[in-house]
Design goal:
297 residues, alpha+beta, four-stranded antiparallel beta sheet, disordered N terminus
Length: 297
């Protein structure tokens, strides 16, 4: 049995996965619960012993037949059956079922990132949902279902989004600070155009970053890398940026940390003839222990 209770402002969310033992222990009418379970067991399950069923449909049909008979049978100490009692006293008090099907609620405690997003990872998929920028750095309780994502901070709902099952960002412009909003409104063409103003080498690298033949990742994945290169271009000389871009293209480096590491290394090297920094181990071409194709003839 698991019980999860989340008390939010003006709302009480309860998720219960219970067993029969839990019902008997905690419900006020536990004696009635035990009696009804035992009665149902004797009147339905016991009569099915010895019978063989070849499909779930056939089994369900037999259960429904015995259940209907059980409900129509007069009770020992009552002048009516359970079905008669239901139609006389209970049916008119039933409320209509909800129009929408029930959705399980899931919970996640996340921190609002500096870019005004919370990162929700579920079912091997990552998606970012915006939160008002005044809550940056705060702990958030995210309650999500298969169709909606709600974000609560200090018991108050601050954001609600339609759930997405693709990598990317779901946001409202009013949630983002001015700098975050500017980044989210950019595109791959924006960064390529910017790189063209720096140098041809930088443009070639940024174009390769977004090359669809190189990666199948959404372009938003590389926005942070490009924005970081924009920031680094204001701190380092263009020649060092160009050299780093050439080395990263040659070694297939498309990570900000590795790019920055190579850039810092290049800034400390005075010689322009420094060999490219490649992260792949050299492959031997001629070695005494290497066997050619003639070995297997």
């Amino acid at each position: 049995m698991t019980l999860q209770i989340n008390l939010l402002k003006d709302h009480l969310y309860i998720t219960i996965n219970f067993t029969y033992a839990f019902l008997c222990k905690y419900l006020h009418n536990n004696a009635l619960v035990e009696d009804k379970v035992q009665t149902t067991y004797n009147r339905i399950y016991a009569k099915l012993r010895g019978r063989t069923f070849y499909s779930i449909v056939e089994l369900n049909r037999a259960v429904w037949e015995l259940l209907s008979l059980f409900n129509k049978t007069r009770m020992q100490k009552r002048p009516y059956s359970r079905e008669e009692r239901f139609h006389a006293a209970e049916k008119d008090n039933l409320k209509p079922l909800p129009q929408n099907i029930y959705e399980m609620k899931y919970y996640a405690n996340l921190q609002v990132q500096s870019n005004c997003f919370v990162e929700l990872r579920q079912d091997k998929m990552t998606h970012f949902y915006s939160v008002p920028y005044i809550h940056v750095g705060k702990k958030a309780l995210v309650i999500f279902t298969r169709s909606i994502v709600n974000v609560y901070i200090d018991g108050i709902q601050v954001a609600s989004h339609i759930r997405s099952y693709e990598y990317g960002h779901t946001y409202l412009k009013e949630h983002l600070a001015s700098n975050c909003r500017a980044i989210m409104e950019r595109s791959a063409s924006y960064y390529i155009t910017w790189a063209s103003r720096i140098s041809p080498e930088c443009r070639n690298y940024i174009s390769e970053v977004f090359n669809p033949q190189r990666t199948n990742q959404p372009e938003e994945v590389y926005y942070k890398l490009c924005a970081s290169i924009m920031s680094l271009s204001r701190k380092y000389e263009t020649a060092i940026i160009d050299k780093t871009c050439r080395q990263c293209i040659e070694c297939r480096v498309f990570s900000y940390r590795k790019f920055e590491s190579i850039l810092k290394h290049n800034s400390l090297i005075a010689s322009e003839d420094e060999p490219a920094l490649c992260f792949e181990a050299p492959v031997p071409r001629d070695h005494a222990n290497m066997r050619g194709s003639d070995y297997f003839l």
